[in-house]
Design a protein that fits this description.
Elements (H helix, E strand, L loop, with lengths): L1 H9 L11 H4 L3 H10 L1 H20 L10 H16 L7 E2 L16 H12 L18 H11 L3 E5 L2 H13 L3 E5 L5 E2 L3 E2 H7 L3 E5 L7 H7 L4 E7 L15 H11 L3 E6 L17 H6 L4 E5 L10 E5 L1 H9 L1 H6 L3 H13 L6 H4 L1 H6 L3 H18 L5 E12 L2 E15 L8 H11 L5 E2 L1 E3 L2 E5 L5 H12 L2
The chain binds pyridoxal-5'-phosphate.
């Protein structure tokens, strides 16, 4: 009888006035535990917010007495806290097939760089302190020699990213004056970076020459006036102009520049320091080749093909690099110590190019043999299959990965992965989105790629650790 009564009571909506008071809640042992973990102030604030939520439910007669019994209340509040404390920055599993994925943080760094970053975070360092003279130093000096050695340039500097590098170069070398760029190279990269917009903000005048598909040497020559301060070439990172095309080679541009005494600069975008064809990857002009072709200043990213931290590297003639370093904007765009700590060991790996594919994570991933991904697919397919709701299927399939970040958009890397199909009667796409969401809401969120109503999980970027996680997660029945 008593039992029955309490059950019916549990199912009665709570009156708002019956919600427990904060003062009383603070005495509950489970709340005391939370206070030990997170401190009094935080827990009081969270209890207030949580009770406000319950009050709304109570006023709508949607809260039952069972929810405010200590055991249930504590369990629910603990979940509420967990969600609240979930960090916004989360690590994920990249099964998109795009190795350098801008939305997922681009290059993964090798362990040597990670060690250096940890050191830089936890110990003082010679960021701006010259250990030879005991005087104040320049943070750029830390990597300048190494960059010069690897690129053949006279001088080098580094800023926050390549967009900053281009902005600073333009603003230093052509402030208020004209810069000549081919119409075929007025690119937009990843939405927010557009060459014409950056030029406006750098306070230089863009002089467009040629047409979208064809630009000739005479186009540049005809555009040169006494206002012209620079000829700029921009790497067409994320698209390719094919068919009836003509562009002016860097050698030709440099020859024109030299004839009129105007510097030629190149925004190389991804920029690589080694010839990637030795690993069967598509050809990309290296920074050294670009310098050897006579470019006065070259800019490129640190976290694209280079495989390092986010940074913008600027190399070239000493005269121009010195001017760039003196630009007051340089101070606003400078890199932090963590970037420098990570960049140096990555650059050092390039001193032993024959070992690079083993050591540089980005290159290891780009050159990963297809059999490895196949092996992973064979292991994971049955685990995933038994986790999917009835009607869904998962098959092993060969697929193509992409390099990403605008590097070589049309060249694809043979890979293997899993393809999930929704039950055949569902064609709306919501059935496959349900699985996409399930993967995205894993404790380590997984992201794949939807193609023609199927979900592709390319296993190229799956690390051993991540694979072990999937075994744990999908292995339980
Ligand atoms: C990627 C890219 C940029 C921008 O580089 P961030 O390092 O992302 O700032 C600029 N120019 C070209 C040609 C690029 O490919």
């Amino acid at each position: 009888m008593r039992h029955k009564q309490s059950t019916s009571m549990q199912n009665t909506p709570v009156r708002a006035a019956d919600l427990p008071a904060i003062g009383r809640l603070l005495e509950w042992p489970c709340i005391q535990e939370e206070i030990k973990r997170h401190g009094h102030q935080f827990i009081v604030r969270q209890l207030r917010d949580y009770l406000a939520k319950l009050r709304v439910q109570a006023l709508q007669s949607e809260l039952f007495y069972s929810a405010i019994e200590p055991e249930q209340f504590c369990a629910d509040f603990s979940i509420y806290l967990q969600e609240k404390l979930q960090p916004a920055v989360r690590s994920m599993i990249n099964l998109t097939g795009t190795v350098l994925h801008t939305n997922l943080g681009r290059a993964l760094l090798p362990e040597v760089a990670v060690q250096k970053v940890v050191e830089a975070l936890t110990s003082p360092l010679n960021l701006e302190y010259n250990l030879v003279t005991g005087k104040r130093g320049d943070r750029d000096d830390l990597i300048e020699q190494l960059l010069c050695e690897l690129t053949g340039a006279e001088a080098a500097t580094v800023v926050n990213n390549n967009a900053a590098a281009v902005l600073l170069m333009l603003n230093t070398m052509a402030l208020g004056q004209e810069v000549v760029v081919s119409r075929g190279e007025l690119v937009e990269i990843g939405g927010a970076f557009r060459i014409p917009d950056i030029m406006t903000r750098a306070a230089v005048k863009l002089v467009e020459v040629g047409t979208t598909n064809r630009t000739h040497p005479f186009d540049y020559e005809n555009a040169i006036t006494d206002q012209t301060k620079m000829l700029m070439q921009v790497h067409c990172s994320n698209y390719e102009v094919v068919g009836f095309t003509k562009s002016v080679s860097l050698n030709e541009m440099v020859a024109i520049g030299n004839k009129y005494g105007i510097p030629t600069t190149v925004d190389l975008g991804s920029g690589t320091l080694v010839d990637l064809t030795q690993w069967g990857l598509p050809f990309e002009p290296t920074v050294r080749q670009t310098i050897e072709a006579g470019a006065d200043v070259v800019t490129f990213s640190g976290d694209k093909l280079l495989g390092g931290p986010q940074a913008g590297l600027i190399v070239g003639r000493k005269k121009w690099i010195d001017a760039i370093k003196k630009n007051p904007l340089k101070r606003a765009l400078r890199v932090g110590k963590l970037t420098l700590a990570a960049l140096e060991p990555v650059l050092q790996l390039y001193r032993s190019p024959e070992l690079l594919a083993e050591r540089l994570t980005t290159l290891t991933l780009l050159t990963r043999p297809q059999e490895q991904m196949h092996k992973l697919a064979v292991q994971l397919q049955p685990l995933l299959a038994q986790k999917l709701p009835p009607g869904y299927t998962v098959r092993i399939e060969s697929m193509h990965s992409q390099i990403g970040s605008g590097a070589m958009p049309v060249d694809l890397l043979p890979s293997f992965g899993l393809v999930i199909s929704a039950p055949s009667e569902s064609s709306s796409g919501s059935a496959i989105m349900r699985i996409e969401k399930w993967l995205r809401t894993h404790s380590k969120p997984i992201v794949g790629r939807i193609h023609k109503n199927e979900l592709f999980l390319d296993l190229r970027c799956l690390s051993e650790k991540e694979c072990a996680y999937l075994h744990r997660k999908w292995g339980q029945t």
